[in-house]
Queue: 2 jobs
Job 1
Amino acid sequence: MERLQKVIAHAGIASRRKAEELIQEGKVRVNGKVIKELGVKVSPHDKIEVQGVPVEREEPVYFVLYKPRGVISSVSDDKGRKVVTDFFPFITERIYPVGRLDYDTSGLLIMTNDGDFANNLMHPTSEVEKVYVAKVKGIPSREAIRSLERGIKLEDGKTAPAKIKMISMEKTKQTAIFEVIIHEGRNRQVRRMFEAIGHPVMKLKRERYGFLTLQGLQAGEARELTPHEVKQLRVMATKPKK
Ligand code: URA
């Protein structure tokens, strides 16, 4: 369910503010009935008309993208850099990423035009498990890794407990590779966590998001989520916090 003014704005008919005015002026009907109050929520099945003209609503679509490095998690970039929607030239719907991966981070990113779905997944209480593989500079001590697992103080507060496992290390090159499992999705979180223990991340990839993996995808490729996967993600997003 989405707010009426948001649906009107999303359909490209008017700005959110203008849509609110149209509603208050009695120019919007839902299933034939004039609605003048703001805050009314509508489902994809409701028929909306603005000044007698039916609102064409996009069907919700859902994709998983293997974002390559060197791409912005946005729908446009004023500096002309590559953005994640460039990988969907065949899609007419206005999709956008659920959360973001840094420009230099590769890996799994969900793309959709379903605002509720995206908001629920991104909500801090949704607790979807995200799995990253991070190559870091130097070889962190066990104790440093334990401190990251317990939660470490960053400028926006202490991180929630994380699971971290060393995959390999190269003593001669002084680098190490870790699998990092977190639930939160703060900005540049993994990079900031390792920075906080003095081992900056050199390379970062998101390998898993909940039950979704990159299996079968090469960097730059996307596939549509199955209806069952979409349902599973919805359930995960609305799970009450333990
Ligand atoms: N953590 C980061 O530091 N960067 C990302 O892109 C995702 C998680």
Job 2
Amino acid sequence: MSLKFSRRTFLKASGAVTAGVAAATTVPKKFLSWAEETGQKDMKQIPTFCELCFWNCGLVAKVENGKVVKVDGNPLSLRGRGRLCGRGNAALGALYDTDRLKFPLINIGKRGEPVWKRATWDEALGVIAGKMKGIKEKYGAESMALIYHGTGAAFWKHLMHAYGSTLSAAPSFAQCRGPRDIGFVLTFGSDVGSPEYYDFSKSKYIVLFGSHLGENAHNSQVQDIMNGLAEGAKLTVVDPRLSNIASKADHWLPIKPATDLALILAWIRIIIEEGLYDKEYVAKYATGFDELRAAVQKYTPQWAEEETSIASDVIVRVAREMGEFAPNICIGAGRFSAWYGDDTQRSRAIAILNALLGTWGREGGYFFPTGAKVPEYPGLPAYPEHVEVAKLDEVYPFALLPTTTSIKQASITGQPRPVKAWFVYGSNLMKTMPDKEETIKAIQNLDLMVAIDTMPMDIINYADVVLPECTYMERYDNINLGKFKGASEIALRQPTIEPLWESKPSWWITKELGNKLGLAEFFPWKDGEEYLAKRCQAGNIDFAQLKRDGVIISKGGSPYITAESQPEFGTPSGKIELYSKQLAENGFDPVPQFTRHKTPPAGYFRLLFGRAPLHTFSRTTNNFMLTDLQKENSLWINAKKGRELGLKNGDYVSLINHDGVIASGRIKVKLTQRLRDDAVYMNHGFGVHAKGMGRANGMGIADDDLITKAAIDPIMGGTALRGNFVKIVKGA
Ligand code: SF4
């Protein structure tokens, strides 16, 4: 098997235009004059960007006498446009949380039953460096893995490369958006970006599948969809739950869980058979139309009604509306897409539907983004040559990025090669990976486990050494590059105050550890500021302007297809692949096909989970500014079904899953008509089991405790997180 597109192509996505760096607007003077207006001479305003979720909105911190007293949105930021969401406004709650990790810790007990010894940085890093040297000698550098989330991970990836390992994986690939990205890459030769390239504000019609925008408060994207709806866009939301965004829809389709693919295939068939597709666009840019048409013949609206429980006349009506408004229509690709194990194919079906309606590169559909580049630090030595090692993900032919799935398996079995050490950076794995017992088994097999975090999350308990990183408000970090419609953004993270307690930024920790490993030549910078300044200088980017404004925006080219701006598709054929030869060659369906999934046994419900607007999973569940607003999750149950079970609002219950696993803790019942009667729903991230998290510990139930089965997407290694069933146990 050979991939026709490279990992590099995938990472580049489809930026049709790469901008140079041009002069940018500066922060309006009025915005930065607050100190003068209030007469507070020692007031400083320092722009940086938020890390309370990956959207990374620009913010301006107001600092008085060395303390951050307020944050506001940076009006220049394309990710936030001067606004912060509820979580972003709670920056002080993250910064001044007295439960933070304050000192390096060494575990002198067992993994899972830690006994902590406070250590100096020198001692902690010395222990890690000693272990790393031994592991490299015995098993090779590639037996060391990094599992990461967040902006600071760039320094850890650099350290890993310098040490000799390329094994770095983010749960956000296998456990979240990987299936979506691969589905689109296989179809368009490009993923959909992050922030996504949705042109919602210009859409005339929007379709969302299980994507609860607004509850997932992706700042500028929420603004865009609300602008689009205000301008009259129609909205269809497919979701077993009446989410907040579904409550604003023209059509809410409360689909039977695990049947979305059936609905999409029926829509594809109707759009083809009724001639609603964009014939000129498909003829010019796509390949495999005849094969697609033949492959979807069996997916009639009547068949889809049986599978999905959505009436066939509604299925037909929505398909016709899509055809009517095409190509100014955006069928959202979603984000968290690791649902049922056939998720790459479901995402591919969404991509095909978009292709038929000609939405890619069209106003109101998917725009072509503008990107920017900042050079690497000049003069760094080349990374060590990597010996040919068995690829962990060979079994998943389209895993274009390493998966945590394979790292975990290799840590347990030693196959196809051993993984003996983990760095876990900013990722609470007990709340991100399915089958907690298996994760613990993998960790117990390691020779070294290091956790780097700001808070004493659940994962800390399994570490040998804990390194306290300072928060995003106290550090320089990697430069953040954003691709947007007609503009690119270069964003700077800079400290607003000095690191509290003995916490340190990742640029410092990795440099010190690199020195102890004999890798000093890879870390020549004096400090984080010099590292960034030199990179900017190499790219002719005004670092002083970046420090002053927080972002530099550069204008780009046309976001849409025009006679002069034609799309490039990074697929093997150079066209949109409605039929995928690559998939066929690897034994997969070249056109997505529907396979029925298991339904809950009698007495059980399908377990669904999602985001809370005021929390970013377990990352914020201890934030005192947010726990005041929501301190625990609740269990949504269909009101009629709940009453039949003798439940009422506010009761506390516990949950047991199909494997007999009981979630620890209890959860409050919320009876609602906003959910089908075959599923229950809860916010993800609660049910923290970490004593050090004073406010979060034991509040609510963790869906993760109940996810003991996760089908693996054979195409790219994603783990399906919506295939678990639970029973309600009263009287908790
Ligand atoms: Fe921060 Fe909210 Fe923006 Fe996320 S969406 S980066 S939490 S302000």
